């Protein structure tokens, strides 16, 4: 409502249902979050630096949406009752996984990431550890879980790096 | 309603509000989940074996509550609007963290876990990785994220073990 300047009734008139409005709100929040996270790492030189930058960005900078990660919230909230919303959350998650797999493969091709790693498993591990620690940090109102998660993920990234010696 | 044999109106008559009913439902689901997870590992001999057993149990056996992990769901759902419910979820999470820290310290005292580890960080990492991967596996209807998470956590437990050679 803030963004559009419309009254509540005015917003509803643009959508056929509350479900459709929830989908549009998720798509908007996800796109804003994604762009903000991309901007934080786009200038980093290499695929591995971008992956490391993403982890550090999560530890350093909270979500730009006030309610926390829109993907996590929507995945849980849409568990029953709004299949269209759930489909959008699933597409968002698949897109994130695909982008991380792509960065991992680029790093493998560039010789900075080991060729014996499993990109889908690492991509999934990065996301699940970040998302779970966001849930914990928010519930406890304490930054430590997110910091522990990020330290561990930096170790994982160290381990998949081609060692320089 | 199934458990009590009461009609819907009958259930509401026992609680002062919908919020209070939600708290009672969470406490019931959390206690049942906890007991089920404890039973899965109680016969394991050592603290480290119990921690490993917990991780394997999450990978092998889905939540006994149909909606998935009650803690994860309640942490997200109570983010606005039900502070009493949120307080119960927070207490549940703190209890889980405390139990894992206790197992880690018992393992340190017994000489099977390295004395230079940080129990709160490891406890937090175990929970956040499990919870985040449950969210992913449920949203994608695919077991892989949970399996990747558990493989990684088994590696973490290998690393904190006092090496036998």
- SSE pattern of chain A, N- to C-terminal: HHHHHHH
Strand content of chain A: under 5%
Please describe the biggest sheet of chain A, giving its number of strands, its sense, and whether it closes into a barrel.
Answer: none
| Shape, principal axes of CA atoms of chain A | elongated
Can you identify the CATH superfamily of chain A? Tetracycline Repressor, domain 2
The CATH class of chain A is identified as Mainly Alpha
- State the distance separating the first and last CA atoms of chain A: 56 Å
- Total helical elements of chain A: 7
Radius of gyration of chain A: 18 Å
CATH fold call of chain A = Tetracycline Repressor, domain 2
Q: Helicity level of chain A, as a percent range?
A: over 70%
Number of strands of chain A: 0
Instruction: Identify the quaternary structure here.
Output: homodimer
Per CATH, the architecture of chain A is Orthogonal Bundle
Number of domains of chain A: 1
**Largest interface (CB < 8 Å):** A-B, 39 and 39 residues
Provide a descriptive summary of the structure in words.
The structure is a homodimer of 165-residue chains. Chain A contains 7 helices and no strands. With 165 residues, chain A is mainly alpha-helical. Chain A has one domain (18-160): Orthogonal Bundle (Tetracycline Repressor, domain 2). In chain A, helix 2 packs across helix 3 (47-60) and helix 3 runs antiparallel to helix 7 (144-160). The first copy, chain A, is elongated, with a radius of gyration of 18 Å. The mean pLDDT of chain A is 91. At the A-B interface, helix 4, helix 5, helix 6 and helix 7 of A face helix 4, helix 5, helix 6 and helix 7 of B.
């Amino acid at each position: 409502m803030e963004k559009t300047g419309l009254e509540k009734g005015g917003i509803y008139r643009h959508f056929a249902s509350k479900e459709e409005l929830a989908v549009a709100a998720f798509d908007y929040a996800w796109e804003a979050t994604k762009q903000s996270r991309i901007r934080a790492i786009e200038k980093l030189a290499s695929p591995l630096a971008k992956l490391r930058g993403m982890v550090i960005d999560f530890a350093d900078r909270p979500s730009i949406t006030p309610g926390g990660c829109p993907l996590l919230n929507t995945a849980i909230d849409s568990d029953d009752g709004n299949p269209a919303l759930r489909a959008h959350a699933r597409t968002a998650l698949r897109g994130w996984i695909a982008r991380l797999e792509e960065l991992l493969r680029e790093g493998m091709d560039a010789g900075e990431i080991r060729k014996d790693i499993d990109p889908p498993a690492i991509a999934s591990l990065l996301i699940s550890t970040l998302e779970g620690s966001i849930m914990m940090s928010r519930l406890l109102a304490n930054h430590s879980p997110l910091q522990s998660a990020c330290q561990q993920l930096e170790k994982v990234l160290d381990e998949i790096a081609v060692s320089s010696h």
